[in-house]
Amino acid sequence: MTTNSDHFTRAKQFIVGGVNSPARSFKAVGGTPKFIARAQGPFLWDEEGRQYIDYVGSWGPMILGHGPQVVKDAITAQVAKGISFGAPCVLETRLAEIIQRNFPTMERLRFVNSGTEACMSAVRVARAFTKRDKVIKFEGCYHGHADFFLSKAGSGLATLGEPSSAGVPREVAATTLNARFNDLASVENLFARNAEEVAAVIVEPVVGNMGCVPPDEGFLPGLRDLCRRNGAVLIFDEVMTGFRVDAGGAQRRFAVAPDLVTLGKVIGAGMPVGAYGGRAEIMNLLAPLGPVYQAGTLSGNPLAMAAGCAQLDHLLARDREHFAQLERLGELLEAGVMAHARAKNYPVSYNRCGSMATLFFTRERVRSWEDAATCDTEKFARYFWLLMDAGIHMPPSQFEAFFLSTTHTEEMIHETARQMCAALDKVFA
Ligand code: HOZ
Q: 22 C-alpha vs ligand 1 centroid, how far in Å?
């Protein structure tokens, strides 16, 4: 049998580090990454034939589990009609309509190919609208790998302990200002020190990229207010939270309306797609209506559009039921793990927003990157491998959220809680 280790060795001969995205290298947890052969419902199988209950869900979009039949059928039907047109198709309008119905703040939108592109383009149009250059982001948030976001970023960068990237010109990095999540005073301070220079504040309204960190009450409305008072555009990066924490994303769950919104792979059922949109007066600055350029052959790709329409139609046909189920499963897992952890007084904390969550190896309540950075990542690595060996697939980093799907059953959640508790017992033995 060709093992995962054999596959990794061979991959490294051709692909940098053997992976196409650094978190997948397992550098933070040690050992060899699993090479995934197939996925269905809540399960993954690796190349060695081992089955896992999956809580990564391709980093969020698999809200209906892997390979829902409706999505597979839609993709197959579209393949027969064409794979890429580089020209308009009605599926784009259909998907845009579904999105706008749930995200009414997206008065006009554009499809792109990834969350990275969506965030990069949203900042560009915000800069053009305000005629300003600086952008406020939050330490530990990740908005893709455009140059100006790679400063004190979360996700893979935090995982590797290098929150800023080489290769970013100093002048570009200087346009990014970092504030502390859940700390309005830090934002106010940056506005004061950069009066009339800040184009936008971009935020993951529920952070997924330093682990799951929900906003404190008043934080998002406070950002809304600060942006309004300072003439800056408020951008919600809902790549993880869109159609996840609510059908209308975090903006509906927390009742705060941003000026611009970015969405990612969930609107393509896991296919490579993203979108950005918002107030028409801002978005209409884009070419061909205005002077801001953004383009791409694969933008609005018919396969991704067909997959997205099928997934969202299915999810939204019974959205109350689906979101209630996801909430219930999320609660069940948290209650199962934390009752045990509290009884044993283990130094861990648990953050959750609906069906996204993180178990942090710190006693601190994690409200910002500073808190997340207090985690014991060595203990996390041990726990991660104990779960993997028990057939539970979690993100290979303390600084990522895990996700549930509608295909996870209560039995699976109980079993997962049991395994998580057993892993904690071993880690803290
Ligand atoms: N850092 C990405 C999620 N937040 C991981 C992407 C991937 O490796 O697929």
A: 8
Instruction: Compute, in degrees rounded to 10, the torsion defined by CA atoms 102, 105, 106, 108.
Output: 130
The pTM (predicted TM-score) of the whole model is 0.97
Active-site residue numbers?
Answer: 142, 237, 265
Q: Would you write out the chain's pLDDT as a tens digit for each of its 429 residues?
A: 999 999 999 999 999 999 999 999 999 999 999 999 999 999 999 999 999 999 999 999 999 999 999 999 999 999 999 999 999 999 999 999 999 999 999 999 999 999 999 999 999 999 999 999 999 999 999 999 999 898 777 777 777 766 678 888 888 888 999 999 999 999 999 999 999 999 999 999 999 999 999 999 999 999 999 999 999 999 999 999 999 999 999 999 999 999 999 999 999 999 999 999 999 999 999 999 999 999 999 999 999 999 999 999 999 999 999 999 999 999 999 999 999 999 999 999 999 999 999 999 999 899 999 999 999 999 999 999 999 999 999 999 999 999 999 999 999 999 999 999 999 999 999
Residues 6+ apart with CB under 8 A from 322: 63, 315, 406
Cα first-last separation, the chain = 35
Ligand 1 atom nearest the C-alpha of 142 is 4
Pocket lining: 209 vs ligand 1, CB cutoff 6 Å: yes
Compute the distance from residue 130 Cα to the ligand 1 centre, in Å.
31
Q: How far is CA 121 from CA 76, 80, 118, 268, in A?
A: 31, 32, 5, 18
User: How many angstroms from the chain centroid is the CA of residue 58?
Assistant: 10
**23 within ligand 1 shell (Cβ under 6 A):** yes
Q: Which domains occur in the chain, in start order?
A: 4-67+319-427 (3.90.1150.10), 69-317 (3.40.640.10)
Q: What is the DSSP string of 173-237?
A: HTTEEEE-TT-HHHHHHHHHHTTTTEEEEEE-SSB-BTB-BPPPTTHHHHHHHHHHHHT-EEEEE
Residue 20 Cβ contacting ligand 1 at under 6 Å = no
